[in-house]
Amino acid sequence: MAITPISSSTLQGIQRGFQGIRRNASEIASARQMSSKFPTKDLVRSMVELQSNSHHTAASVKAFKAHDQMIGQLLDVKA
User: Fold this and answer.
1) Do residues 11 and 65 make contact, with C-beta atoms less than 8 angstroms apart?
2) How much is the pLDDT for 74?
3) What per-residue confidence (pLDDT) applies to 22?
4) CB neighbours of 24 closer than 8 A, spacing ≥ 6?
5) At residue 76, what are phi and psi to the nearest 5 degrees?
6) How many other C-beta atoms lie within 10 A of the C-beta of residue 16?
7) Which pLDDT score is estimated for 6?
8) pLDDT at 70
9) Tell me, what DSSP letter sits at residue 36?
10) In this structure, how many other beta carbons lie within 10 angstroms of the beta carbon of residue 17?
11) Which of 10, 22, 11 is nearest to 50 (CA)?
């Protein structure tokens, strides 16, 4: 199956989302963040960004799935 511009964009969105999730998880898990009793501004920001990246990735996956289904339906119609 050829990669179209839509699937390429959605795959990039998934990749960027995973990169952000990895970065946020690393920031949250760092020993520097865990040394204080109360969450720091950086820790809170990382947690919010983690949720944002998670939603971004899920949206990209849904867009890729919808694109895949549309291509499948077009192939069914042509067949």
Assistant:
1) no
2) 76
3) 97
4) 46, 47, 49, 50, 53
5) -65, -40
6) 14
7) 79
8) 87
9) S
10) 20
11) 22
DSSP structural state of residue 35: T
Signed CA dihedral, 67, 70, 76, 79: sign only: negative
Helix boundaries (H) for the chain: 5-29, 31-34, 41-78
Q: pLDDT of the chain along its 79 residues, tens only?
A: 565 677 889 999 999 999 999 999 998 888 565 666 777 788 889 999 999 999 999 999 999 999 888 888 777 676 6
Q: Tokens 């919010």 belong to which residue?
A: 48
- In whole angstroms, what is the distance from residue 43 CA to residue 35 CA? 11
Look up residue 38 and give its DSSP letter: S
Instruction: Using the CB atoms, write b or e for 23-62: b if 16+ within 10 Å.
Output: ebeebbeeeeeeeeeeeeeebeebeebbeebeebbeebee
